[in-house]
Amino acid sequence: MSDKARIVPVVNADGDAEHIRARVVWYYYVGGITQQEIADKFGMTRLRVNKIIGQARADGSVRIDVRLPLAHCVELEEQLKTRFGLVDARVVPSVADADELQRLIGEAAGETLDPLLEDGQILGVGWGRTLAAAIKTLTQRRFTKSSVATLMGSLTRGYGTATLEVATAFAKVLGAECFYIAAPIYCPSSESLQVLRTHYGIAEAMRRAETADIAMVSCGDLSDRSQLASTQTVAENLASLRAAGAVGDLLGVFLDNHGRPVDHPLNERVMALSPAQLKEIPRTILASGGMHKAPIVGAILRGGLVKSVVTDEAAATFILQQQI
User: What is the pTM assigned to this prediction?
Assistant: First the structure.
């Protein structure tokens, strides 16, 4: 195997099934044996071998670390840092499958975050599938002095990617305590928002969020691909949000092309850290990509709201070509 590519099988050897799974993964990624040869070796179908290999990549059991430089991606990273005054930028190659792209960006974001983490810090997190993917690449720790804090309220239902679920998963990997802004993202009115903020538990969670040392966030566009935009509250306001100049959201706050909150009632009812408060956090990582999200990613960068970005090649190219 080339010394420029390192494949790391991360397996659980408990039980015969896991033992066979580990061997299948090892023979394919490390041994260089074809799927048909593995199927013959273990007396299973090639389809079964393919499924095992696919699941191993999807669930993080196998991590592929390519050491060869991706020249165009590196060039885009440097351009992003120079143009927007970023501390760091990571650009991954674009792929057609949207779910796969989110996974790739998420894993790259996790690799960016991992060496920055130290015991005693407060880690603030947003939500979404991209951030959920980031968790798989973090090193398991036992940070007894650290805490994880949600940066925004949550949806009332989820699929493992809602705010509370993502924060809990981060806290579990880090062995840290978790503080939740246990409220909906959008309150019924600005008055009810202010009342909820006086609750001692929510006030403490907000204080943790505001004093975070590191924050990892994603963002959403206004298309039906966005889980937030598909909720009833936002869907009913899409036309007026677009009319107000919104191109997407950051922590539930809708922003214009320059990264400024638009004048809209939803922004007065959002239970979340404001863009200005996020900007004050010492280290912030935005993990988001895809051409449908390129406008909002670009807006956040133009607004100077984050210090680092992890995105994909096509989105980075689009952002750098925009003349706004």
Answer: 0.82
